[in-house]
Amino acid sequence: MERRAKRYNELWVTEEQTSNMKLSLRINQILINKKSEYQDILLVETFEYGRMLILDGAIQIAERDEFCYSEMMAHIVLCAHPSPKRVLIVGGGDGGVLREVLRHKEVEKATLIDIDKEVINASKKYLPTISCAMDDPRADVQSMDALAYISSVSNEFDVAIIDSTDPVDFAAGLFEADFYSDVKRALKEDGMMLAQTESPFSDSNVVVGAFQEIKKVYPITSLCWGAMPTYPTGIWTYTIGSKKLDPSVPRCPAPEGTKYYTTEIHKAAFVLPPFLKKLLDKA
Amino acid sequence: MERRAKRYNELWVTEEQTSNMKLSLRINQILINKKSEYQDILLVETFEYGRMLILDGAIQIAERDEFCYSEMMAHIVLCAHPSPKRVLIVGGGDGGVLREVLRHKEVEKATLIDIDKEVINASKKYLPTISCAMDDPRADVQSMDALAYISSVSNEFDVAIIDSTDPVDFAAGLFEADFYSDVKRALKEDGMMLAQTESPFSDSNVVVGAFQEIKKVYPITSLCWGAMPTYPTGIWTYTIGSKKLDPSVPRCPAPEGTKYYTTEIHKAAFVLPPFLKKLLDKA
């Protein structure tokens, strides 16, 4: 029998980014692998990106690159608003966006509504650098159906951030005009909302669809983009619906401690390549 | 025996982006799969990105997203230079960067030096939308060792573009100060060079290393970045060494027909997130 070099066990997790494209990451350990009432929850430690939360097979957030996403989600609208005191986060149970929202000293209260309590608990237990702001006295974290919550409030928030999963299953309603209209009613008269709206390369139909739906409801609709390595194609879009103010104009300085966002990045994020402008012309 | 749904053959190609991360693409057909004198050449048709050239296992260029890379490689330096008449392209045997260079009407001659004639021929045969400018009378396409070519010329080019493969094997020398110094001698007194310098997430050591080496040689060293979906992490850096002029300032208008580059994108590409600035502080 021939000798062979010592071999090691390898564990990999694979995301089907589309039916024709997969990203695989080598993992060190599995921390959670269970079904909640709403979805499959997988929390693993990857060698490339640190700990990572995966819901129904889709990568949600990883320790090493989440700052790109969390900062864009929070600071674009919070810095475009002249005085953001009351903030609503829909989804975002990991707490990354909440952490960035609470970097803004002028925020008095941030309400986070995620449908799945088990996601919130998983993040609290295993993703401390992401969930760390949940204990802030200004944080109001609730697990309930955001659609039900939103339909019960009006004229309450300066800014709303829609940190949803992909537009399938229970999250599909978060990409429709009826929901955006409810959010509009929940906003004050100079309020604005921002939603994550997927990749312009692999999900251009979602980008166009969300833009169309938001445009039906808000007088000002605008799109910006940024880097996000663990999401399909590495490029992500964020679409803003605003009742009064142009969201591409930064009105407040960047909070301290950011790794992705600056006032200059804010302006640059609204500069769109022609292929992306052309995509929005369809909307 | 139970009946089962009809199943289909699936062919996938996988790139090891790092030892801990892999991208897989479903393919329709294999057009070339051979060894040249220098490298393994694989040319496949993918469902997600159209036809794709892979060298030694690394994705080089794909029909559907190459515009992001080809345009940044060409237009940043060609638009920053006030009058680019003579252009050198090192590598880039697929012809994508050459096509973009020749969109500039003021370019009188573009010399492309790729070590591997078989890459040039593969692109001519199977990637017509990418290689289409090789027959332009202003194109001078040669297959030889760029290191040898460069050491024989001086004061000849306005702009040089280093479209190399990853810094391993025969391409490693293209990331060193000696080479950048030879390129400097080949440039005219207001000349500038741009090199692709990998991802700030997965290859931060290459980003820092190339910046250091270029800085040793050029009075002005500057880095910009952009989207590139089929490259690891989707974000790519481009580093410029300039003898006299600030490359972040666009001096010529964008050529017609671009899908990624505009004058505004030029300026935005030099706006760096703090994490990337911090990386360069090490250089």
TrEMBL record, chains A, B:
<feature type="binding site">
    <location>
        <position position="39"/>
    </location>
    <ligand>
        <name>S-methyl-5'-thioadenosine</name>
    </ligand>
</feature>
<dbReference type="InterPro" id="IPR030373">
    <property type="entry name" value="PABS_CS"/>
</dbReference>
<keyword id="KW-0808">Transferase</keyword>
<feature type="binding site">
    <location>
        <position position="94"/>
    </location>
    <ligand>
        <name>spermidine</name>
    </ligand>
</feature>
<dbReference type="InterPro" id="IPR029063">
    <property type="entry name" value="SAM-dependent_MTases_sf"/>
</dbReference>
<feature type="binding site">
    <location>
        <begin position="145"/>
        <end position="146"/>
    </location>
    <ligand>
        <name>S-methyl-5'-thioadenosine</name>
    </ligand>
</feature>
<dbReference type="GO" id="GO:0008295">
    <property type="term" value="P:spermidine biosynthetic process"/>
</dbReference>
<keyword id="KW-0620">Polyamine biosynthesis</keyword>
<dbReference type="Pfam" id="PF17284">
    <property type="entry name" value="Spermine_synt_N"/>
</dbReference>
<dbReference type="GO" id="GO:0005829">
    <property type="term" value="C:cytosol"/>
</dbReference>
<comment type="function">
    <text>Catalyzes the irreversible transfer of a propylamine group from the amino donor S-adenosylmethioninamine (decarboxy-AdoMet) to putrescine (1,4-diaminobutane) to yield spermidine.</text>
</comment>
<dbReference type="InterPro" id="IPR030374">
    <property type="entry name" value="PABS"/>
</dbReference>
<dbReference type="Pfam" id="PF01564">
    <property type="entry name" value="Spermine_synth"/>
</dbReference>
<feature type="binding site">
    <location>
        <position position="114"/>
    </location>
    <ligand>
        <name>S-methyl-5'-thioadenosine</name>
    </ligand>
</feature>
<feature type="binding site">
    <location>
        <begin position="163"/>
        <end position="166"/>
    </location>
    <ligand>
        <name>spermidine</name>
    </ligand>
</feature>
<dbReference type="InterPro" id="IPR037163">
    <property type="entry name" value="Spermidine_synt_N_sf"/>
</dbReference>
<dbReference type="InterPro" id="IPR001045">
    <property type="entry name" value="Spermi_synthase"/>
</dbReference>
<feature type="domain" description="PABS">
    <location>
        <begin position="10"/>
        <end position="243"/>
    </location>
</feature>
<feature type="active site" description="Proton acceptor">
    <location>
        <position position="163"/>
    </location>
</feature>
<dbReference type="InterPro" id="IPR035246">
    <property type="entry name" value="Spermidine_synt_N"/>
</dbReference>
<protein>
    <recommendedName>
        <fullName>Polyamine aminopropyltransferase</fullName>
        <ecNumber>2.5.1.16</ecNumber>
    </recommendedName>
</protein>
<comment type="similarity">
    <text>Belongs to the spermidine/spermine synthase family.</text>
</comment>
<dbReference type="GO" id="GO:0004766">
    <property type="term" value="F:spermidine synthase activity"/>
</dbReference>
<comment type="pathway">
    <text>Amine and polyamine biosynthesis; spermidine biosynthesis; spermidine from putrescine: step 1/1.</text>
</comment>
<keyword id="KW-0745">Spermidine biosynthesis</keyword>
<comment type="subunit">
    <text>Homodimer or homotetramer.</text>
</comment>
